[in-house]
Structure formats: structure tokens, C-alpha cells
Amino acid sequence: MADAKVIPFDDDRSRARRRPARADGETAAVRALPGPQEPEPPAFPGAEEPAAPVAPGPPAARGDWERRLAGGLAFLRRRITGEYEVDEFGYDEELTDQVLMSLLRPLYEKYFRVEVKGVENIPDKGGALIVANHSGTLPLDGLMMQVAVHDHHPAGRHLRLLAADLVFVLPVVNELARKAGHTLACAEDAERLLRAGEVVGVMPEGFKGLGKPFGERYKLQRFGRGGFVSTALRAGVPIVPCSIVGAEEMYPMVGNARTLARILGLPYFPLTPTFPWLGPLGALPLPTKWTIQFGEPIPTDSYAPEAAEDPMLMFNLTDQVREQIQHTLYKLLVQRRSVFF
Amino acid sequence: MGKVVLVTGAARHLGGRFVRRIQRDPEVDRVIAVDAVEPVHPLGAADFVRVDIRRPEVAKVLAEHDVDTVVHLDVTGTALGGGGRTSVKETNVIGTMQLLGACQKSPRIARLVVKSTTSVYGSAPRDPAVFTETTPAKALPSGGFAKDAVEVEGYVRGFARRRPDVAVCVLRFANILGPRIDSPLTEYLALPVLPTVLGYDPRLQFVHEDDVIDVLRLAAHEPRRATQNSGTFNVAGDGVLLLSQCARRLGRPTVPVLLPAVTWVGTALRTVGITDFAPEQIRLLTHGRVVSTVHTREVFGFSPRHTTAEAFADFARSRGRGLLPPEALAGAVDRLAARVAPGAPSGASTVHDGA
């Protein structure tokens, strides 16, 4: 296992060393930087082309502004009279779309500059289980994955994350998590969501992955007990592996204050180069550049229903998913120019 | 020959309504209404027998009237006309034991329906979001009505084991709401300002009292074709309301309070005797509870006519206007919209449509 981790890393480093020579040093790197951003500005006016010629003078702009204001007031009206719907998990779709996603979007677009690949691997219809690596001390990777699916999926699917029980114990956090569509990571909830045809996101590494030391970055931890595979099998939905690069470096966890964690009832208490030494300022994540890659879906509908009871098959499938995520992680790491760009 | 139905808890609003309704069913010959106190409402043609189900006399009533169906509604959270928690608990637990003992000795009993509550599932942050009839509770209710209900269900299971010839139906009701229902939750919702737990917005489910009567009737009769009415079933309206939504729809402002303070104030108020706000109620209003009604729908063949939102709307209509009536707030927003964006094309028109 350890060998399997070391070899690709060496591979990664050698290729990384090779690349600058090929790319003609710094100038290329600088030129390459706006590369992924360049297609975006043309895409934007392109999308708004029909609207742009209509807005030469102030009246049209005013109409647009008024429409937005009226929309905002209609939203306010629904909210203060309580006339909105939540599902049985407490998911408030309207609040998520209009408010929570808008709050996360600057972090997603401007701060971490997330690049999304393979979002079309998430099916347009029906349930799917997205399995991702977990890292970064704070579970921001899950939230960024949610924004990625929400903003980029062609069918406008909503990701329903499965969260640790700690989330639902904490005040305020549990309320927001439920409203954003998250629910407790247990087989019952996952299966209920998948059977309802939702896209469910799970991070089977849990706190082991989230709170692993910086030195072990991008080394996948044990995938729980593989419960997610049997849930997907029982619901007959495909498993979409997802690899997230960039979250590991946002809070480089160099130490863990175990005693303090135990006193506070937390799974770990991170010590980073800045936290808690700089106080609240130290809690600011580093502006790393993120890539989220959704991989080829692994179909599960070919298995018989009783296959979910076969531990050997579960272990094999769990390993397959894990390998695929790990492999994609290495591939993305090789392609990455720098942690911050 | 028709059925003879015995209904306990007839002096309560729900019991009274059920007694009046079931006697109109053609299969029913006679209805024996039982309670420890005289009912204030009429019971129609039913025979009222004043007997305390905590006493063994209830066995005589069963034998005397040749009762074949028992509907046990006297499992409740609040005392009728005074009496503290002790007497409520005794009626719930000892009363059920006596009643079941009497039933066990009666050879004619063919059907038993017991009113229970979804609070047997408890409310904990580590529970799955939706409870099914088979979900075991992570934390068993530690006291109050919920614990009574757990114990009652335990005795009913024991009875069902000893008398397999009797069809036993346990109905777990979500919070029952209706214009005339009195429960700790309706008492809470009647407060002018609702104290809530800071940082928690519980999911709540309600069932309308009309649906309660309907489902009790279904359970008391022979099962309809292709359905089965013995077993344990959750009864709740479709959909979910958050407490914040309830408060807004009622037009009552909320005051978020820290959880330790809520517990402390609740204990203080209970000691003084102002309210009977049990810790399980606080847990419900912290973590919420949602049950699945799929089993009830598919096996029992019952779908409530009122959704959770409709049941709540009916309840809200029966209560006075709150301090912040939703109509007034909506009107204020509409006036604002009319002022700031008078000629706004599409968005504003939807606003006016909604008004």
C-alpha cells in the first residue's frame, strides 16, 4: 500500500521537474495562468449577447434592475410569511439557491478559483452517489463540490451531502446544514435520498481524511467500512468518484492538540502555521487553487440485490472506487502548476 | 350482530368526537364510552360508563357489555381538569395494564386499537432524518409522555404475544392539531412570542384531528380488501414544516434562546407549575422529528386528507391573529414593491398575483 503511494508521487515530481523545461520557464507559466480564465470572459458576453444589445441606454438597465428588485421583494414576501416548502430532510431549495449558494459563490469563484472537470459524468436524471476524498481540516470541500454541481451541471442538479453527526449536534451549523440539503451520514438517509432520485455526495474518509496531518496530504485514508457501496447497490444507482485537489493545502495541519480536542469534544484540534497563533485571522484559509474532477460513473445496476450482502464484493468495489479517486488525484497533482495558481 | 366498541378517554375532545362518529357506522351496534370523569360534550347514543381504567372494574364493563373491540385513546400527555404528571402517568401506564389485563381475560375481544405517539422515537441529532416504524430510537425518551408511550407499547406488544387471536393496531400519531385540540404543543404555539432554541430549526409534522378520527375508524373495523390493519403504523400529514415557518405562518415573533437557558427556564416553569413543558417537548422543538408514512399508506391503506401544512393552516385560522400577521407583512411588502418598482414588468406582476 505504502509503495503504491510513493511511486506515483516520485512520478509526479519527476514530471513536475520536467515540465518547466518544456514550458519554457516562468513566462510560459505566467502565460498559462490566464489560460483557463481567458475562455471565460468571452463565454460570458457570449451568453449575455441577446441581453447586451438591449442595454445600450439607461431605461433597459433600469427595467432589469426593477425586475431584480421585484423578484427580491417577492422572495422576501414568501420568506416572511413562511410560504415556502422544505422537504422531509429540511432542505430549503429556495433558500439554498437564492442565498446560501450566493454566499458560497465568491469563495468558490474568486478565492479558490475552482476548476470543475467531468461534471457531465453525473447523470441528468435519477439517483447517483458521488464519492469524494475529504481534506482540509474544515469540510469546505463538500460545500465547494455542492456549488460545483449546482452551478455547472447542465441539468441543474442539486447535490445532497451526507455529513458527520457532529454537524447536527452543533447549533446554527445543523440548521444551515439541513436547509442546504445535507443530512446525517447513515445508511437510512442515504438510501432514502437515492431512492428519491437525488444526487448524494459522501466522503467516506470522514474525520480521518479531514483531519489528517499535512504530511499525509493526498493519501486516501480507509474508506470507512464501505457502507456507501452497499447503499448504492441496494438503491441501484451509479457511483461517481470525485477527486478534489487544493483543499489539502488550505489549512496545512502541522499539529493536533489532542488534549484540547478531547476537552472540546472535537475529533481533532488543528494547529496550522497560522492557527491558533494569529487568532481569528489565522482561521482564514490559504487561497489555494482547486480542481474538482468527477470521474467515470461505476454502474451498480448489473448486480443482483443480494450482492449488497456480499462483503467480498463490497470490499472489491470500495477498493475500486478508492483506487480510481487516488489515481485521479495523482493525475491532477501532476498537471497542477502550483498550489496557488 | 354488530360490533360493540369500547372507547376509553371519552371525556376528552378527541375521544368524544370518535364516540360520536363511530356510532354512525353501520357495522357498529353499540358504543360504550369510558372515562374517569363525566364528559362535558354530548356522546350521542353511546352508553357512558364512568369507570377509572386504573381499577379492575374495567374488566366487568367488558364482560357486561360483550365488548369485542377496544379503542384505547386514554394515552395522553396532559391531565384532564387538573391533576399532575403523576396521575397522567398512572392513567397511561397502570390504566393500560389494567385494560390489557381485562382484555386478556375476555374471550370475546377480537380487536384492540391503541393511540400512541411518534415521540416514542425520541428526538436526537444522531437519528436518521426520517423514522420508519422499525427504526430503533437512538436515545429512548427519558421521561414524560414519550416514556409512558414507550411503556404502553411494550405492554401492548406483550398482550399481542399472549393473545395472538386479537388483532392489535398501534397508531403512532404525529402532533395532533385541530381547532379544538389542547396539547402542550398547541399551548406553546398559543404564546404571543415563541421562545425557540438558538441555532436550531426543528422539522415538525402535524396530523389533523379529522384524519385522526378517520384512521381510528379504519383501525376499529375489519380491514378493507388488500389492506391489513393490525400492526404498528405512523400517522402524520404529508410534508414538513420548520418551526420558523410555523411561527411566520402564525404571525408570532420568535425569541431565540440558548439551549441551556431553555432547559433551565423550562424546569423553573414546571416547578412553579405554570406550564407542563416536558424535556421531551424541548427536545422536539430542538431537533424535530419526521416519520415515514409509507407503511401506513401501502399496508394500512390510509392517506391523510390534510397535509402537515393544511393541518397547520386550519389550526392557525382557529387561533387569534399574532403580533405579526402574515397578511399584514405581505401587504407591507406589496406596498413597498408598488412604490419602488411601479412599472416593473414580470417580477412585479407575480408579486401582485400573489397578493
Sum up the structure in keywords.
heterodimer; A: 341 residues; alpha/beta; 7-stranded mixed beta sheet; 14 helices; 9 strands; B: 355 residues; Rossmann fold; 7-stranded parallel beta sheet; two-stranded parallel ribbon; 13 strands; 42% helix; disordered C terminus; NAD(P)-bd_dom_sf (chain B); Epimerase_deHydtase (chain B); Lipid_A_modif_metabolic_enz (chain B); NAD-dependent epimerase/dehydratase family protein (chain B); acyltransferase (chain A)
Span between termini of chain A: 31 Å
- Widest beta sheet: strand line-up of chain B: 3-2-1-4-5-6-11
Q: How large is the share of residues in beta strands of chain A? A: 5-15%
Which pair of chains forms the biggest interface, and how many residues does each contribute? A-B, 42 and 47 residues
Q: Which outline of chain A best applies?
A: globular
Describe this structure in words.
Chain B: This is NAD-dependent epimerase/dehydratase family protein. Chain B: Residues 5-236 form the NAD-dependent epimerase/dehydratase domain. Chain B: InterPro entries: Epimerase_deHydtase (IPR001509), Lipid_A_modif_metabolic_enz (IPR050177), NAD(P)-bd_dom_sf (IPR036291). The complex is a heterodimer of chains A (341) and B (355). With 341 residues, chain A is of the alpha/beta class. Chain A has a domain at 117-250 and 285-341. In chain A, 48% of the residues lie in helices and 10% in strands. Chain A is built from 14 helices and nine strands. Chain A has helices at 2-22, 25-32, 34-37, 40-47, 58-81, 93-111, 140-152, 165-169, 173-179, 187-195, 207-210, 227-235, 258-264, 311-335, and strands at residues 115-117, 128-132, 159-163, 183-184, 199-202, 239-245, 255-256, 270-271, 291-294. Chain A is globular. Mean pLDDT of chain A is 83; it is low at 1-57. By secondary structure, chain B is of the alpha/beta class. Chain B has a domain at 3-181 and 205-238 and 290-305: NAD(P)-binding Rossmann-like Domain (Rossmann fold, 3-Layer(aba) Sandwich). Chain B has helices at residues 13-22, 57-64, 85-105, 144-162, 184-189, 209-220, 243-250, 259-272, 279-287, 294-300, 308-318, 326-340, 346-354; strands spanning 3-8, 28-35, 47-50, 69-72, 111-117, 167-173, 175-177, 194-197, 203-204, 206-208, 231-235, 241-242, 254-257. The longest helix of chain B has 21 residues, at 85-105. The radius of gyration of chain B is 22 Å and the shape is globular. Chain A binds chain B through residues 63, 66-71, 73-74, 76-90, 92, 165, 168-175, 178-179, 183-184, 186, 188-189, 192, and chain B through 125-130, 132, 135, 197-201, 203, 239-242, 244-249, 259, 287-288, 290, 326-327, 329-330, 333-334, 336-337, 340-341, 343-348, 350-351, 354.
